[in-house]
Specification:
Shape: globular
Mean pLDDT: 82
CATH architecture of the largest domain: Sandwich
Number of domains: 3
Number of strands: 31
């Protein structure tokens, strides 16, 4: 799915609601409209993630993220005035007044080792581009002050009541016009010294850019391009009013009630699936949080209209960093029906795969679910397979996530989906791509040597 299709299909002055999940950018908004997300992340390896080239644009309830570049790269750039509400960024922004300044806070604040069940405190010298509020709902981690002024601030972080059985992994949201997420990590250790106002970071001193206050004012609706038709002018006026309303809400606290999603410390139980969410039919390239739909335990089933003589079997790869399998035992299939820890099992009776994420060891970062045509060849490939479909189900709720792999051709082996760990959360990626050369090619890619 190309995220830009949503923009091209929308009328100028209209409203676009993006589906939940993660989509690769860059996204270009070249017409006046209101763009709303629904737990939607737009990402790109490098700048920009979102570029706005039109007036009369407002963006709401989305996350824009640089995944491989520096945090200094631009996540969102606006050539003309744009309203933003409840928007999270990883990377800088441009075209938003004072928000264009530097956000000099470590992406991950590593506190190291500290004694358990004692109060430990740390100090940081940081820079924020605008007035900022810090939100963290982990009671064992507190910030002082919680409201920062634009520019340089001294921040105190205090840990209190963390037991020896906990591994600290918390998140804090730094909220100004945009939201920026920061991770706090650390580990209790009986031999560590108590931290008392221990300095751990000092940002470089920098001047905030001076921006005229008029940057935040919407473009007057009475200014028209005389080359436009009356209908186009009315659309532009409507979009400008929408943007102005969004800006007004933002400036007068309209985003103050926006919900945060702060991950608590590792070791606590994961939240159960949200049964209020309707079943999800994923599209190729879409990514979503796994826990909200499936929880820790689920089954994967494969269905298709198979031509005579074609058999398709599942193959599951347990992968470490760098997409390398944990040896031959990291491949689960009909010849090795159970992983060592029982996190993945293959049912010989009906061919479905069961996954239990609570049993996944720390070195496993990704689980790849693949399907291969048994004894395939030039005459046996996925071109002849009708409606190849993966169904992810739970014992309590039945089918929760589906993915139909359309437009397959000469492939004899396809990776249907990947379950991967990202910043402490398991996610699903709908892949639907594979190899003409069969299973041996995929095994070699993951570091398992087999004969072709």
């Amino acid at each position: 799915m190309n995220i830009n299709d949503f923009i091209s299909q929308a009328p100028a002055g209209g409203e676009v609601t993006l589906p939940s999940g993660e989509f690769e950018g860059p996204l270009v908004i070249n017409k006046p409209l209101r763009l709303k997300g629904k737990s939607t992340t737009i990402w790109a390896k490098h700048s920009p993630v979102i570029r706005i080239t039109s007036s009369g644009v407002s963006i709401e309830d989305i996350r824009a993220e640089i995944t491989e570049g520096s945090a200094e790269e631009l996540a969102i750039t606006a050539d003309l005035m744009c309203a933003a509400k409840n928007v999270e960024v990883l990377g800088r922004v441009s075209g938003f007044g004072t928000e264009d300044g530097r956000f000099d806070v470590p992406r991950t604040i590593e506190l190291g080792k500290f004694p358990a069940d004692k109060e430990n405190s740390y100090t940081l010298e940081i820079n924020v581009p605008a007035q900022t509020e810090i939100v963290c709902d982990i009671r064992e981690v507190t910030f002082e002050p919680t409201r920062l002024n634009a520019g340089r601030n001294t921040l105190k972080i205090t840990l209190n009541g963390i037991s020896a059985q906990m591994f600290l992994y918390a998140e804090a949201l730094f909220k100004s016009r945009f939201t920026r997420r920061v991770y706090i990590t650390g580990k209790p250790d009986a031999n560590a010294e108590q931290a008392l106002l221990k300095p751990i970071y000092s940002a470089p001193k920098t001047e905030q850019p001076k921006v005229a206050a008029t940057v935040l004012q919407p473009t007057p609706a009475t200014v028209h391009d005389t080359r436009k038709s009356a209908a186009q002018q009315r659309l532009s006026e409507t979009a400008a009013e929408t943007a102005a309303q969004a800006i007004s809400e933002m400036l007068h606290g309209g985003s103050a009630n926006a919900k945060t999603d702060v991950i608590s410390m590792a070791g606590r139980q994961s939240p159960p699936p949200n049964e209020a969410l309707p079943p999800l039919d994923m599209k190729r390239g879409q990514r979503v949080g796994l826990s909200q739909y499936l929880g820790a335990k689920f089954d994967a089933w494969f269905t298709a209209n198979l031509p005579r003589g074609v058999e398709i079997d599942p193959y599951v790869f347990l992968l470490t960093d760098g997409d390398r399998a944990t040896g031959d035992e990291g491949l689960i299939f009909f010849g090795n029906e159970r992983s060592q820890n029982g996190e993945v099992t293959y049912s010989h009776a009906d061919g479905h795969v069961s996954v239990d994420l609570s049993k996944v060891p720390p070195q496993i970062k990704k689980i790849a679910l693949a399907y291969s045509i048994y004894d395939g060849g030039a005459a046996k490939n996925f071109r002849a397979v009708g409606s190849p479909r993966v169904s992810l189900r739970t014992a309590e709720s039945g089918e929760r996530v589906t993915f139909t792999m359309s437009d397959l051709g000469d492939e004899t082996t396809v990776v249907a989906a990947e379950f991967y760990l990202y910043k402490g959360e398991w996610k699903i990626s709908a892949v639907g791509a594979g190899f003409r050369d069969g299973l041996a090619k995929l095994c070699n890619r993951y570091g398992i040597e087999v004969e072709g």
